[in-house]
Amino acid sequence: MQWTNLSEQTVYENRWFRVNLADVVLPDGRHLDHFLIRLRPVAVATAVNEANEVLLLWRHRFITDSWGWELAAGVVEDGEDIADAAAREMEEETGWRPGPLRHLLTVEPANGLIDARHHLYWSESAEYIGHPEDDFESSRREWIPLKLVPDMIARGEVPAANMAAGLLLLHHLRLGDG
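The chain above was modelled as a monomer; its predicted structure follows.
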């Protein structure tokens, strides 16, 4: 039951993404015009301190007109190492420099439309280096007890699926299932 992409044509492009129109053949032989978005990889990072608190950003997303907790994230620049990009984003958006980063997971948030892979990393330490360079990215940055994360997600306070998945895995790794 595999769909086959015969060809793609770019209909719009900028430095962040491309919108393509694909000629797709369905398993029964029919052709389908399918729009898709090609994105750069996204690097995401956070830290969990000795008190099992996770560093989060409270921000507004104008596209969905919603507020929620997120992790620092951004696109990987051409030629940039993904873990280095994650560390850079965390520092720029939070003012905290992570210690050695560990890969947490890689997810595809909307793989029926977008090819972006989100690579999530975490550290067991972070050093405060000052007010965030990109303070416009969030209204505030806080260390939140990891034990609160599942209830926050259930209440819709972490609306982004990639962030919720990463936080739930961190919760499991640090605190177990209990």
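Helices lie at 82-94, 149-154, 161-175.
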